[in-house]
Amino acid sequence: MSAPNKPRVHTVRVGDTQILARGRRQSKLRDPYHLVLSLSWPRFFGALVLAFILMNLIFGAAYWLLPGSVANARAGIFLDYFFFSIETLATVGYGAMSPASLSGHIVASVEILTGMVGIALITGLVFARFSKPTARILFSQRAVLREFEGQRVLMLRIANERYNRIMEATATLSLVRVETSPQGESFLRIHDLNLIRQRTPVFALTWTLIHPIDQHSPLHGLNAAQLAASHSRILASVTGHDETMSTPVHASSNYEAEDLVFDARFVDILSMTPEGERLVDLTRFHDIEAM
Whole-model pTM? Predict the structure, then answer.
């Protein structure tokens, strides 16, 4: 009796966190549009090159298996049929080789139709990738827990790397950790973290997100060891309307327990020039110092 097939293990990325998932029934190949949009640019162009070569190998083999289908092609030389397929697919037609039989014309017609549809699809995919709204928002590499204006707070800062304006920007912070119910069941719970200022009408340069750790905060009374033991992480998200692209944009990041620094503060990056102008020094954006 054959052993049952083990469920496949898939890798799922949630921000910068990698999670293994077993038993997902849906394959990425069942959603090719989302798969193509999620590829990196090098992989996208690599897939296009492979598809181009594979398609011409298929049609080149079809011409090659039909003797006399291509005029002026050397008999038995597969490269002639392969390059003729490329010329046909691209509708170039240099004139040296051409379909020479009914079967050759039929295969060429099918290839031309395939090429027209393929060019339309590739054009749409490239446009969709270029037009996909993105936000160039820089998140601090670490978050700090410190005393600020008489209370304990969690702080992290973000910056708009495009130096344009994001209108009506809204930020959210959430705590995700493993908790155990009274019945002994383990589960992931998400806690919303209130911010002193959750929305700004204009986000142009930098913005410090501050969560007060009061008695209502899920972070109240916790130390670094407790956060690590519960696999805690902070999820940060920013949404807004990009003034230049006239479209909504969003960005997110997450902080593991080891990314939270206690009793430290961010280095000041705001200063005044001798001419009286304000200067934002992003070269020290991630720097922190002990209090």
Answer: 0.71
Rounded average pLDDT over 204-224: 93
Domain at 31-131: CATH architecture = Orthogonal Bundle (1.10)
User: CA triplet 117, 121, 127: central angle to 5 degrees?
Assistant: 145
158: CB partners within 8 A, 6+ apart: 137, 138, 139, 140, 171, 206, 207, 209, 236, 238
Task: Mark 194-214 as b/e (b = at least 16 C-beta within 10 Å).
Answer: ebeeeebeebbbbbebbbbbe
Express each pLDDT in 33-80 by its tens digit.
888 888 888 999 999 999 999 999 999 999 999 989 999 999 889 999
Residue 29 is predicted with a pLDDT of: 64
For residues 76 and 86, what is the distance between their CA atoms, to the nearest angstrom? Answer: 18
Per-residue pLDDT at 197 exceeds 70: yes
For residue 126, what are its two tokens?
Answer: 């490239």
**Residue 12, both tokens:** 């799922």
Q: Which CATH superfamily is domain 137-290 in?
A: G protein-activated inward rectifier potassium channel 1 (2.60.40.1400)
Q: Where are the domains of the chain?
A: 31-131, 137-290
Selection from 279, 257, 259 nearest residue 269 by Cα: 279
Q: In Å, how far are 8, 148, 261, 283, 287 from 290, measured between CA atoms?
A: 46, 14, 9, 19, 11
Which distant-in-sequence residues (6+ apart) come within 8 Å of 270 by Cβ? 206, 278, 279, 280, 281
pLDDT for the residue 104? 92
First to last CA, the chain: 67
